[in-house]
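Morning run. Coffee first, then this:
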Amino acid sequence: GDGGEGQAVKLASIADYRAASRRRVPRFLFDYTDGGSYAEQTLAANVADLAAIQLDQRVLVDVSRIETRVKLLGQALSMPVVLAPVGLGGLHARRGEVQAWRAARAVGIPMALSTVSVCSLQEVTQGAGAAPWFQLYLTKDKAANEAMIATAREQGCPTLVLTVDLPTPGARYRDVRSSLTGAPGLAGWLHRAAQVAARPGWAVDVGLMGGPIAMGNLTGLVGAKAPLSDYLGWIARNFDASADWDRLAWVRSQWPGPLIVKGILHPDDAALAVQHGADAIVVSNHGGRQLDGAISAARALPAIMDRLGGCIPVMADGGVRSGLDVLRYVSLGAAAVMIGRPWVWGLGAGGQAGVAHVLQLLRAELETAMALTGRTRLA
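And here it is:
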């Protein structure tokens, strides 16, 4: 089976879920999520620099009761983990973001829904009876941004996440090689079709039964019946390279709730984000998908913590492959950690049950790491 109890038993780690997802989804989709920009140096550094942080093993401490709960921006989380926004994440299983949000809710953690998700905010919210966080990209169309913020308010999203590290997309060689980008017309279509044909389970579950394949939050702008290539084209044309700190102040004026700014790597930018109204930031290099050669999040975090001095919560993402990695980020000062690829791999391998099991693994690994470092509370 592709996601029942039998498979959950065999998959022991997030790395196992990556391998299982790779076997199940078409290559262009796997590579789109898995890959980074250029030579993927920053992608590798995110993982390596985080894994290089050594934890202090402590002994003969009473660790019979471990508490992983935290409070973040007024919300109670069962553990310091948030599902990060992932573009096209929902293509990995039928109506995927709906399934992922159900899994996150059951565990008691937030999910940030991407502007470029497959399922619209309305569909995800309706499917779960509660709204996720909403992630916003700044586009040239200010009215479109205003409408998205208004929708997030109407749907009851508790938090808005503004991603600021994408004035222009980084060059992703894997997407060219797989014909996701850079191969218009029949040749590109045939190459992608061959990759879909090699994954019949996915082709039926998502391709045939899982439509519409679109970006649900953008259908009003691109057209409900438009092919995915039209959506990708619209995004490429509409990223706003002119956005500056005044745009953050504008978003702040439009949004009454907690506002998180995602994509900060430099201490000066962290300070500017606070000045312009951020309630929290995410130290992130977009999963190594933007500036290759940029500092890893694990290396960037300490200087940012020093600069801000605890005035707002600081989150981090990039390179998390286990619950130990969650504790590593927390040990550097992170209030919570965002995970992107791990939940998408869980979804690709086993749908909602796969995401639930990935979160279960993270939680168990975090609890074990806390016990062996002699810490019963994350504070």
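The chain has one domain: 5-372. Good start to the day.
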